[in-house]
Amino acid sequence: MKLAPGLHRIGSDLINAYLVEDAAGLTIVDAGLPGHWRELERELSQLGYALDDVRGIVLTHGDTDHIGFAERLRQGNRIVVHVHELDAARARGEISKPNTGWGPIKIRPLLGFLWYSARHGGLRTRPVREVATFADGDTLDLPGSPQIIHIPGHTPGSVALHVPGVDALFVGDAITTGNVLTGERGPRPAPFTLDPKRALESLAKLEVVQATWVLPGHGAPWRGGVAEAIRQVRQVAAGRPN
């Protein structure tokens, strides 16, 4: 789905992956679930690209619902998968994410999320056997030249990617615009966060970013700017309505 020139989404409001396009080819931001492979192929075909036009995959963190088809693309097409050094072991499947406590739950949204995940291969995600690591402040030599902003909290190696050429900030699970456990919508803290306090503190690093699009791993794309998204997250975290 085209969001803007050079900016595309695959998946749904439940689980997102994104494509950044420029003259050098394509960068994939997060790899959703294994079952999103067909959507990836379809989107590439509609854009006039092939899998070999993908220059790299960048993960906002190493959780299983973000690495879905990454290993298939790495192994089959020799595409390098990039992740923060603190989440590399998680992406490779060497460590598991501790139980974070789920927080508030509404049965219907939860069942919808679990059903969607199961139908899209969420129970058979393959770890990424080899990754390339980056650190805070790096700019990757990939289409869009993603700029890395380390925002620990959801996981130790969670990052945001600023891509000025498409006016977008990819935030992974640092912010959600659709809570998969409650169905609540709008910018808010994401569930399954290892260190909620640190995740909120990390948002301060994003306040200087100028971007219209705020693109989460879960929830609808947000086009209201970074500052307003952060303001709403903090309000929700403080227990105040937006």
Keyword list:
13 strands; globular; 6 helices; 4-stranded mixed beta sheet; 7-stranded mixed beta sheet
In short, what is this structure?
This protein is α/β, with parallel strands linked by helices and 242 residues long.
Describe this structure in words.
The protein is α/β, with parallel strands linked by helices and 242 residues long. The protein contains 6 helices and 13 strands. The protein has helices at 37-47, 70-77, 88-91, 107-119, 196-202, 226-237; strands at 2-4, 7-11, 16-22, 25-29, 54-58, 81-84, 132-134, 147-150, 159-163, 168-172, 176-178, 185-188, 213-216. It has a 7-stranded mixed sheet with strand order 1-2-3-4-5-6-7. Strand 9 and strand 10 (168-172) form a beta hairpin.
Spatial shape: globular
Terminus-to-terminus distance: 29 Å
Radius of gyration: 16 Å
SS field, number of helical segments: 6
Look at the helices and sheets and give the structural class: alpha/beta
Mean pLDDT over the residues: 95
Percent in helix = 10-25%
Given as residue ranges, the uncertain stretches (5+ residues, pLDDT < 50) are: none
DSSP summary, beta strand count: 13
Give the strand order, joined by hyphens, for the main sheet: 1-2-3-4-5-6-7
What share of the residues does DSSP label as strand, in percent?
15-25%
Order of helices and strands: EEEEHEHEHHEEEEEEHEH
Largest sheet geometry: 7 strands, mixed
